[in-house]
Every structure is written in structure tokens, then in C-alpha cells.
Amino acid sequence: MQTSSDRHEYPAHWEADVVLRDGGTARVRPITIDDAERLVSFYEQVSDESKYYRFFAPYPRLSAKDVHRFTHHDFVDRVGLAATIGGEFIATVRYDRIGPGGTPAASPADEAEVAFLVQDAHQGRGVASALLEHIAAVARERGIRRFAAEVLPANTKMIKVFMDAGYTQKRSFEDGVVRLEFGLEPTDRSLAVQYAREHRAEARSVQRLLQPGSVAVVGTGRTPGGVGRSILGNIRDAGYAGRLYAVNSAFPEERKELDGVPACRSVRDIDGPVDLAVVTVPAEHVPDVVAECGEHSVQGLVVISAGYADSGPEGRERQRALVRQARTYGMRIIGPNAFGIINTSPDVRLNASLAPEMPRPGRIGLFAQSGAIGIALLSRLHRRGGGVTGHTGVSTFVSSGNRADVSGNDVLQYWYDDPETDVALMYLESIGNPRKFTRLARRTAAAKPLVVVQGARHGGVAPQGHAVRATRLPHATVSALLRQAGVIRVDTITDLVDAGLLLARQPLPPGPRVAILGNSESLGLLTYDACLSEGLRPQPPLDLTTAASADDFHAALSRALADDTCDAVVVTAIPTVGEGAAGDAALAEALRSAAAAVPTKPVLVVHVELGGLAQALSAAASTAPQAAPGPAEEALPAAPAQSPPAVRAPEGTHLIPAYPAAERAVRALGEAVAYAQWRRDAADPGKVPEYDDIDEKGAAERIAGHLARGQGLTLGGEETCDLLGRYGVHVHRALPAPTPDDATAAARTIGYPVALKATAPHLRHRADLGGVRLDLADEEQLRRAYAELTELFGRPAELRPVVQGMAPRGVDTVVRAVIDPAAGAVLSFGLAGAATQLLGDMAHRLIPVTDRDATSLIRSIRTAPLLFGWRGSAPVDAAALEELLLRVSRLVDDHPEVVAVTLEPVVVAPDGLSVLGASVRLAPPPARDDLGPRTLPAY
């Protein structure tokens, strides 16, 4: 690498893997003196036209001086980066720090000239855009704030790279050259462009895995049985639409076929391209297979083989090596230790998994980190013919195994655009990047329902093989943040399937009002109670009696759906003696036809020991003529930077889900109601208000001064009040009272009446222990209270008593903000005391908080009625409380060095509020990779 005379050591942290526009990957790394031969080889493969665009003149070859210049960098004023595939350069970028006249300069000059060169065979893959993000991040790290680039007018591709980046730019034309200057600080537009590119690249990388034109199964046994042979048979039996190959190095040379599939001893021997390789060989042989695939330009791998991070430290290192090797060749990996992938599209029909049967085609996308849970999900959805909900199919299925590379985030990127997927179901045992997952989930949920169940949520330890960022947030908080992002969070696999089936088959309910009708009074009452438990608003059940016919059900359901006070209908049904299958079919058709007349309201069925009805409901719907697609069924646009795509009308909209228990049906309906409300609220998310009295610059100066004393510190009382005051958060003054005389002097300064409080850690916020005396009207009462406290709890030095002015009576609340390394900045609110400490009744929102977020935050806790006039009490000043939350949110968002804020108690009165206690902790903020260049997780 670099010699010892260089000013900086080799910056290994600049190395990164990136996903390109076409879904392939490349390695970005600094260029060093060891790259001379690679650079020359790379330059020889660049066309004369591209060389001319780079140097503004014919430049057929690099001189020895050029090679020295382009490979010797100090990593401060001169930096070069290369994008590599297979260890060879495919593109380069460099910057040189310049002074005011464009001459070479050193720090503190903050401008640099930047130039690119991309091999012609790799132009159009988004390589230059990715390199620009990385070189800009490097420049910012080295104190450079602006880039300048000179480009020939005919070099439209490079001009477009700069213009589309989203930075603030200035463009000029002089002496036949276009000069572009732009600042490097991320802007809202540059982040939107980055996210849009990330989306397209990651979605395309998953599409290449799920829609391959050719598949090779590596490790197919010579005799029946075994994992490889089974997967080969599953792909063949599913009717895979592409080319299929069986690969085993132990095949005799004369063997050309296996089970009717072309057989080869190596991937290299396959005549033609291979898009996907399914790897089933033992772990120790996988590196050889990966090398073969890389040399044959295979696009992606599904590694079924186990023996990686699931088997301990040695396996974890083997897994890291696997990922590094695959990315060297530009390939992405599902697995290792994966169950496989499935795509039921008639144009693909791929079952590259251990599932012996291909699921029915449908509109549900499945993602599971666990193979066992994946089997359970596929099995439940496959057994719809005789199950509780009729026929419901799968669009795509991904089992990620150890999730070494492709993760749930990548699959979400794909599903967002996939016109074949209307509902996404995910089983997650860990979330590797919660901040990114939340961002992607919010965007996905605005277009189509996303239902998630998280395993291992109480274990505190990620499953073996999962690389997970540490979070200090409890699971309940993470769950609340996911719900804020529109995720439908459920607790069990049963709930996952139940909610998914309803959302895939029925429209979203316009509200919480539920009509209940059926031929069983008892079942109707159970449904009514279940609705109340889920926070729904049920109407009294309509009992049609056991003598009700199919026509009676049709008439009752039609009336309920036509009622403007009804948003959804739950039909309860018990068997009718003697009618059998014919009666089930008649009832199913009656319900289907009534529901079809009002397609804007969901209908659910609760049945008892009536398997035939579930089948009949599905059959009646699936054989009904389908309406022609309307505007809502157009394909989803690809660009996420635009408005969220409209939800495609679910296939088989008239399918009516049936459930064996009222609780399950109503629980699914409750989730649908909550999600529908989130969709309506998300359409108008609110705004982050501006406050004229906020002193952002002054706060920044104070924070910098405090951090100059140490890397992490909790501010003192006066410092806390000063910093919060600059954001309009005023803390009631509290003066120390180490002696009775000091207490009376403090009271005279503040003015009676006052409160006397013990602030020792074991007594703070514990009024129940008697460490607080309120409404002390004069010196005599104050001295008496002081004596009582010291007699009860010990010496003043142990109590740390303070005197504080009395605040108006109200409801004691607590406001907290914290920056979590994984999830980001979080604002929390609850009532002070037992409600928060014992019951955990806190609500949470991601920062920055909008005005609508603040309004919903204070109403989200279970004890919220205490704030709004419960039992005749006076309602508190909700507007003042919302403003306080917004100001704290602004403080933490503007200054990420403020890593923790606690306001407790905040007494909210009918008119105004009082902050009686506050603490602020400062520290260097956690690194935010979502603001940096696009990268894949490091291995």
C-alpha cells in the first residue's frame, strides 16, 4: 500500500461495496501505488472517445509520469477511488485540492477539482453516480466543501451525472468548456436522488434473483435424494420457464443429462449465460463454486449450504469470506443456510426451494429469515382448499437464512415496484438496519400493506448468523416506531396469515364501525365482545336465527353494506343440519353476490366446523367474472421520488376470508382498520413548525463549548436551563438549599409559595416516599418542612434539597428524547409516575416530529383520558404540551450532539405548563450511514 512517507495511512474505511443500477455489485476502494498495472490495463480498455472526453485531447496511452500521478495520493489533498469487479478497475475518480486560481493547494483550501473515467463496457450502469457519492463523502471528511469539474459540451453523460446528483450547483461556459461548481453538503434533493438510485439498484438486484432466465443447480446428486437433486426436481416440476442445468463435478464426462435436465461437471462448461446458481454443495466446496460462477458471469447465488455463521465463530468467518468473494465478482447472495426462493409468475414459475410443491399463484409476497417458519407460512397458504380462508396464493417467497447479504430491506425495495404483489408478509428474527427498514417500510406501507411478526423479540440476542446493529431501545419502543411507519405489527404467525389474507382479499375499511349478523346469537355476542376488545365500534348483532336461508343472509348483508353507519361486516355462521355441500355453496354465493354489490366495504365470515363454506366462498369468487382493470390497476411507477403508486386492486376482490374463531377474524379486522387510518393520516403528515425565538446558532456554540471539555457529559443545572431556553423550553428555577438558612434565602429570591424537594437519586421523582413538600407559604412552614425531611431521610448532604417556586396544579407528565445508534432519534411521552414506571405506558415517535405527530403522540398513551377531562376534571392545555414536544424535537434534530433529553416532571395545567426538572446529555453523535454514500453492509 502507501509508503511510510505519505501523510496519511491507507483509509480502509473508504472501502465499500455498492449495488449498481442494473443490480450487479462493485467494490469501491482507494487507489494505491500497487495499482499501476491495473490502471494501465483499465486505460487500454477505454475507447478513444472516452479518453478524449477525459483529457480534452487525443490521449492513447498513459505515460509513466501519468501512472505515477494517478496512483500516488496523500489521501488528503489528492485522492483517487476505483470501482472494481473481479479485482480489475472498471471506473476511476479523483480529486485535487485547488486554490482560488485553480492551482494545486493544501488545507485549509476547501475546493477541489474532480474528474471521472468509466470503462465503455460499464457505462450506463450508474458507476459514475456511485463514485460521485463516495468521493464527495471522502472530500467532506477532508474538509473540502465544493467540487469543480470541467466537461466538454459533447460529454452529455458526465454532465448529466453532475446535474442529476441533487447538489446546489453553478454552471458556466467558457473557452468551449462547461464548468460546473457545486457544494457537497447533502440537500433534501441530493438525499432524494440517492434514495431513488438506491431503490432502483436494490430492487433490480432482487429482480435478477427472482426472475432469472437460466438457473444452474450446483451439487445435484448422481442418485435420487439429497438437497440438490430435490431442488432440481422442484424447479423442473414447477414448469420453470427458463433454461435449467444440473451441475456436479463428480458426473462422468459422458453424462449429458440428469432427470431430463442438461448436466455439466462445472458451471464453466455450460454453453450460454447463467443468471442464477443454486448452491447445495458442502460449505468447504462453496468457494470453488463461487469462483466458477464469477468467472462465468453468473448474476446471483442462492446458497442452501449450511455450516456458516449458524455453526459458530469459524463458520462466521467462512460466511464473511463467502460474501467478500461473491461481491468481488459482482454477485449478490441469498443465504447461506437458506430455504430457497419461489416466484409463481406464469412468466417465471420458479421453485428453487426445498418446498416440494409450488404454491398457488397469488398476490401475497412472503419473506422469512427462518426456514422452519417459511415452511409453516407456505403450508398454511397452500392448504386453502380445505382451510379456513379458501384459495389464496403467493407471488414471491424469499427465505434469507443467515441473511449475509440480501435482506428484508432489499426485498421491500423489490415488492414496492412489483405489480404482482399487493400484500407483503414478513417474519423477521432481527432487523439489521432499523433506520433504513423504517424508511422503506413507511414508503411501502403508503402503497401496499406490510405485515410483520418479529421472532426472538424477548430473547435480547440475535439468531446466529445475523449481523445486527445494537439498539438500546426496548422491543415495545421498536414496535411502536414500526407502527408509526405504517407497519402492521402482529405477534404470531397465525395473526400474520389472518391479517394478510384479509388485506389481500378485501378493501380497506373506511372506519371502525362494524355490523354483525348471522344465524347464531352466541357467536354474534362473542364477535361483539371481540370488537370492543380491539377498539372497534360494533353495532348490536343481528340474529337471523338457525332457520335463516341463503336468501336471508343475502338480504341482511346487503342491508348492512348499504348502511352509511357501517364500515365493515362480520358474518357468523353455524352449520345447517341436512343441507351439506349444496347449502354451503348456496350461502357462499349469497354472501359473495351481496358483497360484490358494495366493493368498498370488507366482509369477513366466522364459521364453526364448516370447512365446506370456506371452500365454497373461494370457489364462488374464483369462478365469478372479473371486472376489466381500471386506472387503479395500472403498473406501479418505478421512481420512488415521485408520489407513492396507487394500490392495485387485489386479484379476486370478491374472495371472502373465513375464520374459525371470532377473535381471529376481529383481530385481523382491527389491524386493517388501524392501517387504513394510518394511510389516511399519511396522506397529510403535517409539518415541522418554525419558531422565531429559537437560537440555533447560539445553542450550537454552547454545545461545542461543552463538548470541548469532554467526549460525553451530562450538563449541570444552569447549563441545562441555558441550552433548553435557547429553544424556548423554560425550566422552573430551582435553587440548592444545603442549610435551612440557604433554603429561606432561596425562597425569598424566588418568592413564596415554594416547594422543598430532595433531589438525591433514590428520592428524585418519588413523591410517594415523602421527599417533597408543597405549598410552603412562609419561612416558618419552610423551616418546619426542612426539619421533617432531614429527620426522615438523613443529612442535607445526602438529600440534596432544593427550593423551587410552585407551579399551577395539573397533570404530571414526562418527555424524553434519545438518539439510538440503530433506530435514530426518538421522542417519547407519558404520564409521570406509576403509569410510565410500572405500566410502561409511553408513546414514541421518530424525530423530527411534525405537528400531526405531536397531536397523536399525547393521545396515544392508554392514560390519555387523564389529560382531557376524565371524570369531570379540567382538560389540560394540549396545545402547550404539543408545542413543548415540537421544540424538544427541533433541539435534538438540529443538534445530534444532544444524545439524551429528559424533562420530568412537566406539569400540564389547564392554562400552560411548567417544566420542573430537566437533564441533558451531550456526546459525539452516532454515525449516520443513511446520510453517507450508498453502501452494502460491510463484511
Topology:
Layout: E1 16-19, E2 25-30, H1 36-44, H2 48-55, H3 64-71, E3 78-85, E4 88-98, E5 111-118, H4 127-141, E6 146-151, H5 156-163, E7 169-174, E8 177-183, H6 188-210, E9 214-218, H7 227-237, E10 243-247, E11 257-258, E12 261-264, E13 276-279, H8 286-295, E14 300-303, H9 313-328, E15 332-334, E16 340-343, E17 350-353, E18 361-368, H10 371-382, E19 394-399, H11 408-417, E20 423-428, H12 434-445, E21 450-454, H13 475-484, E22 488-490, H14 493-505, E23 513-518, H15 521-533, E24 537-538, E25 542-543, H16 550-562, E26 568-573, H17 580-597, E27 603-607, H18 611-622, E28 658-659, H19 662-682, H20 696-707, E29 713-714, H21 717-725, E30 734-736, H22 740-750, E31 754-758, E32 772-776, H23 779-793, H24 796-799, E33 801-805, E34 811-820, E35 824-831, H25 834-837, E36 842-846, H26 851-859, H27 878-894, E37 898-908, E38 913-915, E39 918-922
